[in-house]
Structure formats: C-alpha cells, structure tokens
Amino acid sequence: MDDARGLIAQGAAAIANRVYAGRLGNGPASSGDGWRFRGSGYLQLTGRSNYDQIGRLLGLDLVGHPEWVRDPASAARVALQFWDSRGCNQLADADDVRGITRLINGPALAGLNERFAATARAREVWRT
C-alpha cells in the first residue's frame, strides 16, 4: 500500500511508466516510455511498438513525436491506419463488436458493453 500511495503521489506519468513498463515495446519504468507512449488518439494507440508500426505505415516519426498521436491534425490518420492494419473493416462488416474490441483492446475486452451500446446508438442515427 505504501508503494501504491507513493506512486499515486508522483502523478499520472509515474503511474503510466510503472503500468506499461516492459510491455508493448516499452522500456523499463525509468525510460519514461509508459507515459510517452500512453494510450492516445481516437483509438487510444498504446506502446512504443504500436507507435513505431503505425508511424512507419504512415511515414510519420511517431516514436520521435508521440504528441502527433494526440494532435487532431494527425490523430484521425493514426486511428484509421491502426484500424486498417488490424483488419477491423471485415469484422465491422460482420457486425463483430467483440472481435473489433479484442483487436484494439486485447483479450480483456475492456469497454465491451459500452461499445455494444454505442453501436446500437449509431445504428439509430444512421438507419437507412
């Protein structure tokens, strides 16, 4: 508990650095990668390896400029490239919200119920 309190007292960057240390291509907590490559943009791109991969596909240095993932001028391009690189269109065409969530957020299926609700709302708006 003392460790958790200390980490909380240090703020969001310290928490992100600890949580994402050694994951998704990030270095140790001391590298600052957890905060630098935190979930950002429209699809919450997370981790050095994802920033690197999507940046290469777009011809952007997202590792050198991670703030671009949070910038509206490039955030849509980043999100669409990630979506496309993971094959999400095929799942969307099949109405597979669970499959898309797994590709974007991993096996924990975080936020799945909210995505089902958002999809239902979108269907109401875009009824044809």
Please give a quick description of this structure.
The chain is mostly helical. Helices cover 59% and strands 0% of the residues.
Question: Could you characterize the architecture of this molecule?
Answer:
The chain has helices at 2-10, 12-19, 33-36, 48-58, 72-85, 88-93, 97-105, 112-125. With 128 residues, it is mostly helical. Helix 4 packs across helix 5 (72-85). It is globular and about 50 Å long. The N and C termini lie far apart (54 Å). The model has no long low-confidence stretch (mean pLDDT 93).
Average pLDDT over all residues: 93
Q: Percent range for helical residues?
A: 55-70%
Q: Characterize the main sheet.
A: none
**Count of helical stretches:** 8
Q: Please give the alpha-carbon distance between the first and last residues.
A: 54 Å
| C-alpha Rg (nearest Å) | 17 Å
Number of strands: 0
Which spans of ≥5 residues are poorly predicted at pLDDT below 50? none
Beta-strand portion reads: under 5%
Structural class: mainly alpha
Shape summary: globular
Quaternary: single chain
Order of helical and strand elements: HHHHHHHH
